[in-house]
Amino acid sequence: xxxxxxxxxxxxxxxxxxxxxxxxxxxxxxxxxxxxxxxxxxxxxxxxxxxxxxxxxxxxxxxxxxxxxxxxxxxxxxxxxxxxxxxxxxxxxxxxxxxxxxxxxxxxxxxxxxxxxxxxxxxxxxxxxxxxxxxxxxxxxxxxxxxxxxxxxxxxxxxxxxxxxxxxxxxxxxxxxxxxxxxxxxxxxxxxxxxxxxxxxxxxxxxxxxxxxxxxxxxxxxxxxxxxxxxxxxxxxxxxxxxxxxxxxxxxxxxxxxxxxxxxxxxxxxxxxxxxxxxxxxxxxxxxxxxxxxxxxxxxxxxxxxxxxxxxxxxxxxxxxxxxxxxxxxxxxxxxxxxxxxxxxxxxxxxxxxxxxxxxxxxxxxxxxxxxxxxxxxxxxxxxxxxxxx
Length: 390
What we know:
By secondary structure, this protein is an all-alpha fold. It folds into two domains: 5-181, Growth Hormone, Chain: A, CATH 1.20.1250; 203-389, MFS general substrate transporter like domains (Growth Hormone, Chain: A), CATH 1.20.1250. The chain is built from 15 helices and no strands. Helix 1 runs antiparallel to helix 7, helix 6 runs antiparallel to helix 10 and helix 11 (272-295) packs antiparallel against helix 12. The longest helix has 32 residues, at 125-156.
């Protein structure tokens, strides 16, 4: 079937909506706290509820899209993202702001899951992996841009400006999807048959190929996002400023971007399962090197950032392939599968980051890295099973 280059760009923006919604608003949290005169814990809910509904909204919209089609879902998602930001901009109460961020989270979930499944619908397996790598590469670039933009907008306009920017971003996706994104899935009359919906969840989760691809893909995604939870404390112990920390951590994003480019060029030649297996090995090796450097006294940001570059590079050839490899094995339940995979990735990311901090990962760099290495070994084993099955 295929998609136009413009459609790919719109899907890339839709796929990035979740990370933009997280990073653009982060610099405004202190302003929101002061504006509404609430605690930091209440203010954090503006971000937390957005992430939660991005994760679990994908389950809802992925399943619905298998029944009513992809196009209505992605258009609805873009509208929710747009209107949520627009109304949040003028919200007089923190409670209403949190509710509107939930609306935005649901919109981001619909856009994220549909961007991935539309690509899966429109291309053969290896070409879909290449296209999704390109889309994912854009997703990696946007958080750095959004974080900088969010700081500038917050300082010049205020937190309302950040909400307005998110609304504009949603409006661009809305117009683009309405004009250029075709329907890639026919209508299914079983839309309200809940027993069949539950059965579709069971069919997807019990699919061994889907399970293994989703397992190591979720682990890799969780490790990626967990770095943002404990890494700041280690850099702070080194006396590194927030600005310098952002620069050092950018090595991960650069590596991830390059990994996606490599995947785009070689996935069809080498094979998805092989790319995933070697990517998981590279990720594990990166943290082993990091821990070894730390243990022999090489305490410098460079000896964290260089392994993070390797991790980003390895992750770039793993995550997109894990989605395509798992989803393509589920046949006509690809929408449900995409929703489950997305929810698993985001949910795992939230859980791992919270778990590491809760057991003292902010104070012990060795403990944090050791947990990540153990998880990466699980990812290697899971990807090895897919490698050996092909």
